[in-house]
Design a protein that fits this description.
By secondary structure, the protein is of the alpha+beta class. It is 32% helix and 19% strand. It contains 6 helices and 11 strands.
Length: 199
């Protein structure tokens, strides 16, 4: 039995490659193992710091069978890309890859919820200082990749409130749009999603 990254064990009876290319399940599984246990990975990629896997997920046969039962696992986007495996939409701030915390979501939803902390400035999400006006500007991507201007405000807190309102409404709209195809747990998480000033 192959041991991967010192903790994962390939106890699967079937094949894991096709034409010398790893199958989707095996690629996902080894990618999670690398994020959690790969030497130096968590030092380089801070978003994975502290991440671990459940004991069940350390078994490839368990992970393989779990994937088959998940809504969205075999769904393809318009660009022929598979939906993303997500670990923290169901549990905010989650660091555990497990059968209870992971799900598959469209790339559009994943991008909508991604927080690029390395690009953050000194102001809250969605807020910047408009030096010419001497006020705080709120803006947010509109879900189609375009930046939408939300107005100028006297304080960064007021600007953030405008961003928060727009973003939460956008997330709910996308939840409704995808409601027929996403996992019910994902749908509920999106409907209840709150943007926090500490995000």
């Amino acid at each position: 039995m192959n041991v991967i990254y010192g903790v994962g064990f390939n106890d699967f009876n079937g094949r894991v490659t096709t034409n010398r290319k790893n199958d989707k399940e095996y690629s996902l599984w080894t990618s999670i193992l690398e994020r959690c246990y790969g030497e130096g990975t968590q030092e380089v990629k801070i978003t994975y710091r502290g991440c671990t896997m459940s004991e069940n997920f350390k078994s490839f046969s368990f992970f393989y069978n779990w994937c088959q039962s998940q809504k969205g696992f075999r769904t393809l986007e318009v660009n022929n890309r598979h939906w993303h495996l997500d670990k923290d939409i169901l549990v905010r701030g989650n660091k555990l890859y497990s059968e209870h915390t992971c799900c598959f979501i469209p790339q559009k939803i994943n991008a909508l919820l991604t927080r690029r902390q390395s690009l953050r400035g000194e102001y809250p999400l969605g807020v910047s200082l408009n030096k010419r006006a001497g006020k705080f500007q709120a803006s947010c991507k509109d879900g189609a990749g375009k930046l939408k201007y939300l107005g100028l405000f006297l304080t960064q807190e007021r600007a953030f409130e405008a961003y928060k309102l727009f973003k939460e409404n956008l997330i709910r709209d996308i939840a409704v749009r995808y409601s027929e195809v996403i996992d019910e747990r994902v749908y509920q998480a999106l409907l209840n999603y709150k943007v926090e000033i500490t995000d």
